[in-house]
Amino acid sequence: MPAPNEMTPKQLMRLIGTPECPSLIDVTLSEDVAKNPYLVPGAAQHDHNDLSGLAAKLQGQSALIICQKGKKLSQGVAAWLASEGISAEFLQGGNLGWATTDGAPRVPLAAIPPLQNGQTLWVTRHRPKVDRIACPWLIRRFVDPNARFLFVSPSEINAVAERFNATPFDIEDTFWSHRGAFCTFDTMIEEFGLKTPALERLALVVRAADTNRHDLAPAAAGLLAVSVGLSRQYKDDQAQMLAGFAIYDALYRWARDGFDEGHDWPSNRG
């Protein structure tokens, strides 16, 4: 019988990428990480010996604890957090169980930029529209929930990146950018190992909207219209980004669960 504070990989797969996902905390030992250098999407590493620091970091948020096999480390940490009044579960089977679950993506640690004060730091052009909202959404939901994004003048991106050790994205001649016909959102899905049917379906819409190829996906015209509208509605790029996240949360659920649903006005009503 499953433990009352145990979550299965299948249950977690329904939560990852949504605002309802708990904080995912990976407490795998460093020697085990070296053998299997991947994370469950959205998971943050934390030393299992620093439990008070973890409790402070969570700030009362519910958590799912992950270790190599879903045994002593994750169960012990989850139980300790529960004793502090923090809602905590552990992942059944741990990282190894996740790795053998059909369709479960894994983020390679080598793809994640170095952390700055416990978070990845990114920089791009100001006044975002499509790719520069979609990419931060993808990173926050699937790679680093604490990621910070800087929006600056195009001429200052490289200097800001160098001065603040930030990772530039969605600008020419950088690693995290367009590649041929594919946009930066596509690049991130590829490099972060996030090729799921839902994200690839969403990526097609983002690509079509971002590259003015609305023939690729009917939803692209709507995404562009909403994106332009948000850019006119908000002067502050950070506020616009957060407002845009709600759009991508909805598009992700459409791409995952509702892409084949249509809507029409019945003509046979009396």
TrEMBL record:
Going by the UniProt record, its keywords in alphabetical order are: Transferase
Q: Which domain of life is it from?
A: Bacteria
> What are the protein's GO molecular function terms?
transferase activity
Is Transferase found in the keyword set? yes
Q: Which SUPFAM superfamilies match?
A: Rhodanese/Cell cycle control phosphatase (SSF52821)
Q: Which residues form a coiled coil?
A: none
InterPro entries from the UniProt entry: ChrB_C (IPR018634), Rhodanese-like_dom_sf (IPR036873)
Residue ranges of domain ChrB C-terminal in the record = 122-254
What is this protein's record name?
Sulfurtransferase
